[in-house]
Amino acid sequence: MEITDLTPAEHRVWQAFPLGEGVDFRESPDDDPRAGASWGPERTVRAEVLRALLLNGPTQDGEIAGMKLTGARITGRLDLRYGTVEHPVRLRSCHFEDTPNLYGAQVRALVLSDSVLPGLRAGTLRVELVLRITCCRITGPVRLAGAQIAGAFFANGAELGIPPGPDEPPAPAPAVADEAVLQLNHADIGTDLWAVGLVAHGQVRLNGATVGGQVNLDDAELNVPGDIALHAETLSVGTDLRAMRLRARGMLNLSGARIPRHVNLAYARLSHPGGSALRASSCVIGELWLREAAPVQGTVNLRRSQLDLLHVPPEVWPGEVKLDGLAYQRLAPHLPAEQRLPLLEREAGGYLPQGYEQLAAAYRTVGDEAAARTVQLAKLRRHRRTLPPYARIWGHLQDVTVGYGFRPMRAAGWLLVLLLTGALAFALHHPPALKSDEAPDFNPVFYTLDLLIPIIGFGQEQAYAPEGWYQWLSYLLVATGWVLVTTVAAGITRSLSRQ
Length: 499
Known about the structure:
Blueprint: H1 8-16, E1 23-24, E2 44-46, H2 47-56, E3 67-70, E4 73-75, E5 84-85, E6 89-92, E7 95-96, E8 106-107, E9 110-111, E10 116-117, E11 120-121, E12 126-127, E13 131-132, E14 137-138, E15 142-143, E16 148-149, E17 153-154, E18 159-161, E19 182-183, E20 188-189, E21 193-194, E22 199-201, E23 204-205, E24 210-211, E25 215-216, E26 221-231, E27 236-237, E28 241-242, E29 247-253, E30 258-264, E31 269-279, E32 284-289, E33 297-301, E34 306-311, E35 321-322, E36 327-332, H3 337-344, H4 353-365, H5 369-384, H6 389-402, H7 408-428, H8 444-452, H9 469-498
């Protein structure tokens, strides 16, 4: 391109490029790039001029060339496909009339902050430093699938997609554009993905992406009602996924993700009625936080995931959960078992013993044996509801008498009741002695103890033989004594072993 073909505005850009100097066409710092279609020739630059500069522009000895353009209207398509740009590209607060095409390109740094674009084609883009679309307004899809960004990717405050009109309800799933508005599937980001305050009117896709540092979606809004808002299957993150105060209408799909530290959804609002609001199955996560979040609208699916800490208050859980195979070390906040148990009743798969075993193990980890026993008792009671009627009768009997063995003091109480009953009955009617001349003096209390406690002998049981219904009472005392004494002994053994 000859310099004589340039407009005055383009000539300014051409002269500034080899010096790495900036050109600012704005009339005031408050200029809105959304009005850029009305900007005149004094601030209009053709995309072919920018292409010529970036691929084969002039340089000057001792200076670092670079594109630094602010507040321009860029006409035509900026086509850098497969090109290698040795200079940083900074196009801030610009208005693009056509979608830039950087598919397969290599650039040092790409900054499009505060600009307005109809889309961005940059699949398999390679960036040596950073990529910024901070505070951009991009109506079409941002295609960055397979991109390799050695530094960070910034999308703070960006608005992607086309929002519904002021009097228009959100579009249901079939009306949503087929393409995700932000496509980072299989991208490789060396440090952080920073998207605080991102507003996406369409799907954000991170399937198979690798982020060396942190993914930050604090205060973001993801709007795809009835469909998947965040598609991040097999996402790999080096540290944390932050999404505090996230507002998501549509599913968060983290299935198969690997996040070693935190998934922080504190104060978030997750809504996908009739479907899964949070799907984090088969994940490996350090800590999952939903602290002080709004009650989840939709199912939470954590099947087969592994967590170190699960911090979800009971009131946040939805009416249906899928927790089969979920493994965690600790729960927060620490609450009585009675407040945690209702969650296991909401399991979509019905009664699953593993959920009770896992909850009991978490209580044992923090030394709360009483809560662990409460969970085990609840497990047996829940299991009883799945049994045939005759088995339920036996289960009820075990529950009432000894709490399935987890309430040994209840057994001691029954022993006391039986002792008083037997002592009173035999005090009113002494059983006859087998050998009157050899029998010790009859004592109704110790005689009843002889019947109830099989391991202690006071010489009363062998000396006296009750008759009639008193004989049946003695049989009952012997049988129940064996069961109750064994239960008490097991409870004492567990208590001693814990100490």
